Amino acid sequence: MAQIYIAFVDTPGIFATIIRHVLKQKYIHVALSLDPALEETYSIGRRHPAVPLIAGFTREKKKKIVKAFPDADYLICRMDCSAEQKAILEHTLREAMNHRFHYHYAILGLPFILWNRPFYQRNHYTCSSYLAKILEEAGICKWEKHFSLVTPKDFYEYPKKRKIFEGTLAEFLAQNPQEEPENVSVWNLPGLHTPTWERVL
């Protein structure tokens, strides 16, 4: 059995506040990590934490995020999967990282979510629609609607997950002082061990 990790983020800002009001949920950004310390975390989101208008596929850097948003709240959940399913995700994320500037945020698709009408523009995703697509393709998640309509709330309500941390990113970093490798990918690391902080709250 293998695991993946979903990070829910209480993103600050005017645009995030609008989305939060529409979804009626605190956490309005989701990211995927293949390790519990979030050393390798990917999403469709801000390429730079402080610049919301420049968004696409990115590897999230914890230290940059906590510097820009020291009080941002995180909810981290674990999901089980097979080793084969995790390998599919690793390949998908590797390919996306190699072509990361081809991916963009699906701004035009946001009204269609409100209208509950599927809408897909090539290589344009929201944070949740991208994760919904690749997790369904890997056979980990099953959605009852088109991936373009999946929101962070759907992930929040998804039953097959287990909460392992909730608090600020600064608190998470204090408990996990690992250095983020700049040029090393998780699929090249010799081994990852569950840190001592991981526990069910």
Describe this protein's structure.
This protein is an alpha+beta fold. It has a single domain, classed as endopeptidase fold (from Nostoc punctiforme) (Alpha-Beta Complex). Helix content is 31%, strand content 25%. It contains 7 helices and 8 strands, in the order βαβββαβαβαβααβα. The protein has helices spanning 14-23, 62-68, 83-98, 110-115, 127-137, 152-157, 169-175, and strands at 2-9, 29-33, 41-48, 51-60, 73-81, 104-105, 124-125, 162-168. The strands form 2 sheets. Strands 4-3-2-1-5-8 form a 6-stranded antiparallel beta sheet. Strands 6-7 form a two-stranded parallel ribbon. Residues 180-201 have low confidence and may be disordered.
Supply database-style keywords:
single chain, 201 residues, alpha+beta, endopeptidase fold (from Nostoc punctiforme), 6-stranded antiparallel β-sheet, two-stranded parallel ribbon, 7 helices, 8 strands, 31% helix, 25% strand, disordered C terminus
Q: Briefly, what is this?
A:
With 201 residues, the chain is α+β, with helices and mostly antiparallel strands. It has helices at 14-23, 62-68, 83-98, 110-115, 127-137, 152-157, 169-175; strands spanning 2-9, 29-33, 41-48, 51-60, 73-81, 104-105, 124-125, 162-168. The chain has a single domain (2-188), classed as endopeptidase fold (from Nostoc punctiforme) (Alpha-Beta Complex).
